[in-house]
Amino acid sequence: MRDSIARVFGLVLAFAYAAAIVWLYSSQPQTVAEVSGALSASLGAYRADDVAFADGLRFFRRDQFAAARLAFERADPAHRDPRTQFYIAYADYREGWGRVYHDDVRFAHGLAAVERAIAVAPQGRVVVDDPDLQLHSADELKAELEAGLRYDASDLNPFTLFRPRK
Amino acid sequence: MSRLEVFYLPLLFLTVALLGGVRVADRLMLLPPPLFTLVLAFVLVGVLVRSGALAPERLMSPARRPLANMSGLVVVLTAFAAATQAFNVAIPESGLPRLLFSVFLLVLLLNTLAASPDRVRVLRSLVVIFGSAFTLKYIVLAALSDPVGGRLKRILLILLEGVTLGTLSQQVYRPVTGYLAFLTLMLFVSGLALLPSHERRETTAARLEPAPGDA
Lengths: 166, 215
Fold this sequence. Notes:
The complex is a heterodimer of chains A (about 170) and B (about 220).
Chain A (H helix, E strand, L loop, with lengths): L1 H26 L4 H11 L7 H12 L3 H11 L6 H15 L7 H17 L17 H12 L17
Chain B lengths: L2 H17 L2 E3 L3 E3 L4 H17 L14 H25 L4 H21 L3 H27 L5 H13 L11 H20 L9 H5 L7
Antiparallel strand pairs in B: 1-2
Helix pairs in contact in B: 1-3, 1-7, 2-3, 2-4, 3-5, 3-7, 4-5, 5-7
């Protein structure tokens, strides 16, 4: 009897460990916060920090994008909240946007953030109803960031100098 | 009931499977094993069984109860997963070195399989194979790929890159990756040594040895 119990316990332990390894390799967390965040998100218990998010939004509206990103990172250390990731991407877009040329590093960072937002959102749909923004969905923002990172003949069009920042 | 079979071996091999893909650069990466490592692991399990280093009948047999057979199956499966990840540790991630390492490891394993050595010789051989691969990947190749260095080193590297059509240098990882790789390979070889084995297996060499008084 004791032998059977020990064997069952060993099997459960091995299967749980194996499942954890498969989960880690498929979710590729970068930090301990991402590991704990993903675990709590899988249980439906993850929430971004509202106070830090409000701080980030205030900085974002004052065009203090670096400070906004820091606050948003604090609000969503596990990168599991689609709305916060959307704002991080938007902060990158607005900071990296230029009339003559865009900052590729910021745009690439923003693209990674908006892809994270899409990945963690239910059905991949992220819509933010904020009148301060001109791009309300993650799809629009992603297209804008991808267009900014692309090099083609349209970059030589002088009328692009008059395009507005969204 | 053997604690080794039920707890220690599966957990040890799963730890190897976990650590085998860990690479630390500017961020933490968990690299899944390439498909070719599955082939190498399959051949390695064949070598272990052939040499008696792994006795499958001591883990699974009609004489054992179903739960005991299940535990035995877990040991075999986790050993296979660990072997896959051990090769993931040992083989470079890109370029010509990856191709060369993969081919050499396959040839070495097939050669070992054909030679049918006993358990001790197989374990010694595996220590040499993994030790050499570790040295080449984490010491020699890492030093060549490191962008920090003197003018002479950079000139040598440019020449080598020219000869190998730019496929020599690898992604540079933090030193902790090398230490983790070493630990992973040590755990793996220790696990192989702990596997249920045949008590004694007669080798070809032993059979050919003249009996006392023959001469």
